What we know:
Layout: E1 2-8, H1 11-16, E2 20-25, H2 31-41, E3 59-62, E4 65-66, E5 82-86
Parallel strand pairs: 1-5
Antiparallel strand pairs: 1-2, 3-4, 3-5
Amino acid sequence: MQEFTMRFFANYRDAVGQKTVVREYEGVTTVGDVLDRLDDEYEDLELFDEDGSLRDYVTIMRDGRAVTHVDGLETTLEGGEVLSVFPPVAGG
């Protein structure tokens, strides 16, 4: 079993009902694996498009680094990482 801490922001925090969630998963090796399980657990997260790809506006960070700068959903995990899930940010 591997333990992960997930932090959620803005509307994703509302969907989960809290800012931080700690989960143990077996057989998880990538960021995509964790997100699939979270998406199954919390139906209001809506992280993926209908074709199964991560929505364009979702930002996922592993230990403070955007996974788009690593290997995207294929970014490997060993356990103990903190994954942060951010919605789009708008400003003016």
